[in-house]
Write a structure and sequence with these properties.
The protein is α+β, with helices and mostly antiparallel strands. It has two domains: about 110 residues, Elongation Factor Tu (Ef-tu), domain 3 (Beta Barrel); about 90 residues. Helices cover about 35% and strands about 30% of the residues.
Length: about 270
C-alpha cells in the first residue's frame, strides 16, 4: 500500500465537514489555573474569601496562626530602627579624627607637640573608626534579621498568585495543615485556551496571532467563539503527524465552561 495514501486515509477521520470547513478536536482550559498551599505547616487562623469569590493578584486568601512571627517582626524592627549606638560611635570617630589631624598639623608646622602624641591621637582615631565600622555592620545585620522576620511572617499568609476566581478551599478555620498541602484552587476563566492537535499539512497554513473560528461543546447547542493562535509546536509527532496548536479566546461573558471540548474550524 502506498504510504502517502495510508496516512491520508488514516487522518481523514480527523476532518469533520462543517459548513465547508475542516475541523479538529480540542479541549479548553482556563488561561491561568493553580492549586496553591503553604510552604510551612500550621493552623488555619482566618479565611478571608469564600469559594466563587473573584480575587486580585496579591490579595490575602487565608492566614495561619502567626502571633509569634508578628512579635518577631516588631522586635527586630525596633532593634533595626535604633540608631543610637551608630550615631554615638560616629560622633566619637569624628571627634578623634579632627583631634588627630589637628595634632598632626601642629606637629608638622611647629614643635608644640611630640611625635608620640601624634601616634597616640592616630591610634585613638583608628580604634574609634574600627568601633564605628563594627557597629555599622551590626546595624546592617539587624536590618537583615528584620527582613528575614518579615519573610517568615509572609510565609504564613496565602495570597492570590494572579487575578482569578476561587474554585475550591479544602480547609476550614482552626484546622491544621502540612507544608505544601493543597489548600486553594484558583482559576482565571476570563480568557481560555484551547489545545488542539492538527494534521501537519493543515497546520502549515496557521500563523501565530492568526484568528480562527472555534466551535465549543457543553450545551444543547454548539457555541462559537473567535480565537487567536498563541502557539504552534515546531515539532510534528512522528506517530500521528499531528502538531500541537494552542488558541486563546475571550470568555469575559462567562459563556464557556473551561474543560469542555470543542473544535478548531479551518477554512
Amino acid at each position: 500500500m502506498n504510504l502517502r495514501f495510508f496516512w491520508g486515509a488514516s487522518f481523514l477521520a480527523f476532518f469533520v465537514s462543517f459548513a465547508g470547513a475542516r475541523s479538529f478536536d480540542g479541549v479548553t482550559e482556563p488561561i491561568a489555573q493553580a492549586v496553591i498551599g503553604m510552604t510551612v505547616p500550621g493552623r488555619v487562623d482566618s479565611i478571608m474569601v469564600s469559594e466563587g469569590a473573584f480575587v486580585r493578584k496579591g490579595m490575602v486568601i487565608l492566614t495561619l496562626n502567626k502571633e509569634e512571627e508578628q512579635i518577631q517582626v516588631q522586635m527586630t524592627h525596633l532593634i533595626a530602627e535604633n540608631q543610637a549606638d551608630l550615631v554615638s560611635a560616629q560622633a566619637k570617630m569624628d571627634t578623634y579624627k579632627k583631634d588627630y589631624f589637628a595634632t598632626k598639623k601642629l606637629f608638622e608646622t611647629s614643635n608644640s607637640v611630640s611625635e608620640e602624641e601624634v601616634w597616640k591621637k592616630e591610634l585613638d582615631y583608628k580604634l574609634a573608626k574600627a568601633e564605628f565600622e563594627k557597629i555599622q555592620m551590626t546595624e546592617e545585620k539587624e536590618k537583615l534579621e528584620y527582613q528575614m522576620a518579615v519573610v517568615q511572617l509572609e510565609k504564613r499568609i496565602l495570597r492570590a498568585p494572579f487575578d482569578g476566581e476561587i474554585v475550591k478551599i479544602t480547609k476550614n478555620t482552626s484546622e491544621s495543615i502540612e507544608a505544601l498541602e493543597p489548600l486553594v484552587e484558583i482559576a482565571d476563566v476570563r480568557f481560555c485556551r484551547m489545545t488542539s492537535y492538527i494534521y501537519a499539512p493543515e497546520a502549515r497554513s496557521l500563523k501565530t496571532g492568526a484568528t480562527v473560528n472555534l466551535q465549543l461543546d457543553g450545551a444543547k447547542m454548539s457555541r462559537y467563539k473567535k480565537g487567536r493562535v498563541e502557539f504552534i509546536s515546531p515539532l510534528v509527532d512522528k506517530s500521528s503527524l499531528l502538531r500541537t496548536v494552542k488558541i486563546i479566546f475571550d470568555n469575559t461573558d462567562g459563556a464557556i465552561e473551561p474543560g469542555v471540548t470543542g473544535k478548531v474550524r479551518l477554512k
